[in-house]
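Encode chain A's predicted structure.
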Amino acid sequence: MTARISQKAAVAVVFVAAMFMSIMDTTIVNVALPTIGRDFAVSATAIDGISIAFLVSLAVFIPASGWLGDRLGGKRVLLTAIVVFTVASALCGLASSLGELVAFRIVQGVGGGMLAPVGMAMLFRAFPPEERIRASAILTVPTTLAPALGPVIGGLLVTDLSWRWVFYVNVPIGIAAFAFGVIFLRESVQARPGRFDLAGFLLSGLGLGLLMYGVSEGPNLGWHQPQVLATIAGGVVLLAAMVVVELRSDAPMVDLRLLGNHLFRSCNGVIVLASIAFLGTLYAISLYYQDGRGLSALGSGLSTFPEALGVMGGAQLASRVLYPRLGPRRHISIGLTGTAASIGLLALMGSQTSLWWARLLMLTLGLSMAQVFVPVQAAAFATITPAATGRASTMFNAIRQLGGAIGVAVLTTAIVLVGPVHLVAGHPAANLTAYRAAFLAAAAICLCAVAFALSIRDADAASTIPRRRGPQAAGPPSAPATAA
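Encoded structure for chain A:
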């Protein structure tokens, strides 16, 4: 039976299932936080630890994932990560106190931190350059569909069952992905993964963890609070030290030399700014629906869901039609412009504006973002060697994860600074100007990413453009940064 399924299909199935489970977990848990707080009788500030613990743990273990995959084998590490995440999800559902729940979320983050980089590296090693656009369309499914589905599923589970089911829902997905992977995935270990860079792991993991904590807590506690300033400053100092140490290392945990690759550097610039704008907007629109317009959590999720439909249709349009005809430079630029326009138009909504207008814009947002994520992921690794793919995937995912956290922090801060509530005739009412400011900030950040997109040279990604393969595109240019 195993011979009937190619490694492309096997890796794609396991990776999509694992990533969908991991990414959806963040948004689905956010819906349940108020209910969990009431159940454990803790404050809103304390309950935020459930989300913060997961994000920080994720950030700490992402840097080590690439080396582990190369050293121990992608199949072994990916399946281990799925087991850790699945078991931790079950334990979260069984937690009897806030302390237990936070501890189990940290364990969840350990598994989640290894899933994306290892799975992405396996996917791009399975697909040759000319098929990377197909692989990228596959990657887009969990990374953009899951954040939209999370609030819908979370609202249903919390309303009709219990908050514990937002964790239990991961268990059958994890078991199925693990069983499929055991049967169909083939093992592959890189020949020379190098020694384990302990200094690089500690500096990058702790630096990213502190920075993620500070950025995530800043909007809640206030950016002026000593603990926020101290953790951000500590994270920046550790990351700066990491840069010095890793550039001197012969076998770095975080291979910063890869940023010397022009194409990889440009694509990372796009992905971090696009993630800030897109994931920040998904968070802000849920606040707009619930706090600004009075929708329930389920109603908010259903009104956000058109974004997922846009992504699914847009991914097919990107991979089958636009990327082969336009190449990454124009394709990504058009996608970013459409994304910025969709987010900017959200700022025009008033208190009486039909919510169908917002849903239409969510559809166009998803359609436009597919024209960013699909070509960026296809092009980013075009000039990266197979041996360096694990390290490149680690960096790419760390940057994207940090971008998402910054996006939520920036847009939440904009809402807080303007004030989500104001007085109307002496009575408190939702201040929609706060949400308009957040949407305009996200649109501006998205437009900044166009500069990185325009710096991409299509010739560098020629091997990933199906129509251009042949004598005129003999292969990707060599680049010093791609050396394993």
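Residues 257-484 form a domain with the Growth Hormone; Chain: A; fold (CATH 1.20.1250.20).
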